[in-house]
Design a protein that fits this description.
By secondary structure, the protein is mainly β. The chain has two domains: about 20-80 and about 135-160, Chitinase A, domain 3 (Roll), CATH 3.10.50; about 85-130, Beta Barrel (Thrombin, subunit H), CATH 2.40.10.330. It has two helices and nine strands. Strands 1, 2, 3, 4 and 9 form a five-stranded antiparallel beta sheet that branches. It has a four-stranded antiparallel beta sheet with strand order 5-8-7-6, with no helix packed on it. A hairpin with a 2-residue loop joins strand 1 and strand 2 (about 30-35). Bound molecules: zinc ion. Zinc ion (ZN) binds next to loops.
Length: about 170
């Protein structure tokens, strides 16, 4: 057990068990589709498969204050699109409340619990959904600004994930 000198924390590079926070902008096909500045920064513990593998690889060895652009192919992002992922679901299994419109991501109740799916079509009694991740099969362009890199706490090491504001609640 060692106590880390907090003054040295800005010297830390990203590697296994470091807790990293960053902001990102995500573009696909030249169009920006997400900007984390509208929400809290992303917080994760490096080396625990909690982050897209393409992003983790690019962040390895980096430091707080650095910015980078990363191209993430499907196999290191949200995977390839699966065939046969489209299905017709009775409306009573739709958990998302409010008006349903095609293109939105909804929650549906399945035997394995709640799952996200992209809504394709709304019928009278059923909806057609695609359970592929909306970003499956896409080449993603991330612009990343690394805000903070720190050592994990003992709690975080025991749990295998980062704790912090906006990161995780028990
Ligand atoms: Zn935890």
């Amino acid at each position: 057990m060692s106590t880390t000198d907090t003054n040295a924390s800005d010297e830390l590079v990203i590697n296994k068990d470091r807790v990293v926070s960053f902001h990102y902008r995500l573009s696909e096909g030249g169009e920006q589709i997400e900007d984390s500045a509208e929400e809290s920064p992303v917080l994760y513990m490096h080396g625990h498969n909690s982050m897209l593998s393409g992003l983790e690889e690019a962040l390895e060895g980096r430091k707080a204050g650095e910015s980078l652009t990363v191209t993430v192919p499907p196999e290191k992002g949200y995977g390839e699109r699966r065939e046969g992922a489209q299905q017709r679901v009775p409306k009573k299994h739709v958990l998302t409340k409010g008006k349903l419109s095609p293109g939105m991501v909804i929650q549906i109740n399945t035997k394995e619990g709640a799952q996200e799916a992209v809504l394709l079509k709304v019928g009278l009694k059923n909806v057609d959904v695609d359970s592929n991740h909306p970003l499956a099969g896409k080449v993603l362009e991330f612009s990343v600004d690394i805000l903070d890199v720190r050592a994990a706490t003992e709690d975080e090491l025991a749990h295998g994930h980062a704790h912090g504001p906006g990161g995780h609640e028990h």
